[in-house]
Amino acid sequence: MTKHNIENEQENSASGEFEREPVPKSKLKSWKSFLGMYAGEHAAGTEFMIGPLFLTAGVSAFDLIIGLLMGNLLAVLSWRFLTAHIAVKRRLTLYYQLERIAGKKLVTFYNLANGFLFCFLAGAMVTVSATAVGVPFDMEMPKLTDTVPNSLTWVIIVLLIGLVISIIAARGYETVSKAANWMSPIIVTGFIACGIVALSQLNVGSLEDFWNIWGEGTDPFPGQLKFGFWHVVIWSWFANAAMHVGMSDLSVFRYAKHESSGWTTAAGMYVGHYMAWIAAALLYAVYLKSPEAQTFLGNGEAPPVAPGPLAHNAIGIFGIIVVILAGWTTANPTIYRAGLAFQAIMPKLSTAKVTFIAGMIATVAGLFPAFAMKLLGFVALYGFILAPFGAIIVFEHFFAKRFALVEDYAAKERIGFNKAVFWSWAISFGVFYFISLYFDVFLSFVTLPAWILCGILFLVFSKRLQRGYTVENGS
To answer: Where is the region Disordered (predicted)?
Structure first.
């Protein structure tokens, strides 16, 4: 079959999402498509939660401003030189590429974990949007300690928002990308406006005044972990660990014409994970001066973090709109990724159907505020769980030939469970999760060591497993 015919066959794929084949050249996209998507996704719902949560962790000015600068740079470099590089070389989804290495049975467990964790993250963003929709209804907002729905109004609003988000995500990458491109300028403008208004409300007239908002830091709020400089650097680097070093965004960058499109993630990191986090933190700083917040603190409780009211207090109705759209632009691509994970388990179902199912799971998760209110810890956990699987792909890509290993071993040997992959992940996860629990080490601090150990063990175990194997006798 000629290359032309192969591409035509791929283009006629029933779903149009190329879940189990390389993306054809005719479907590749320019860097502009990724710029809008990353700016939209990362100047989004999570930012309205994470910025204030940094304040509840008692960060200082230096820790926040310089720490975020460094951590976000490390994240951009990870996307550019690992994720985008491998994606353009192979043009496969994470799920199919990992299946070819690890085997279908093993990847089924990974896909379930991946899909559900993404659904929970998307659910947190449904929660964020719901806090904005609830403002006109004078809805009681969830507190930092809340875990279950607190009213029927909350349930109805979350269900309606989740339904709309699920429909958009189920329409595929094209729709997700267009939605992000359309919404992102509005959201970015909203974050800038919120930051400017908050500075005015805080009576900031100089750089010194701005710096003194955080000063030398404070004790963490009740029930929150104290964040120092390295907490901020490492956490912001691995806030998206599953996407970059965990290789989830292979599914996104497989559409890129050139691997240099990986640089577009800087729009997300510095517009979203820098400017937007700081702007959202400023909104919360304003709220902390209110009598309501002081009452909470006086009672030994952490004041609630509800993005809708915070943005509404700063810029009115536009703030409500921005928070709603911000939740959508994070939830949409996250549900799309979850749908791809579930579709790999149920290939007979269309991507649209499984993505809609993922959206409904996310909606149910959104009913429970705990996923949003504990976002710093949850993000650290899901990155720690999923990132080491990305090391399997990275280490095979860069070191397989050097160590005379067979690439895509499970596919060539037709095995469903690659023990080298399983034990590499299990040992690295077990060792460093134990260290985190036993020695009370912040989980993000052990994500990189776990990732490296998993990759090294994969090379060692694969060498042993493939002893005596040659491509000729396995093909």
So the answer is: 1-21
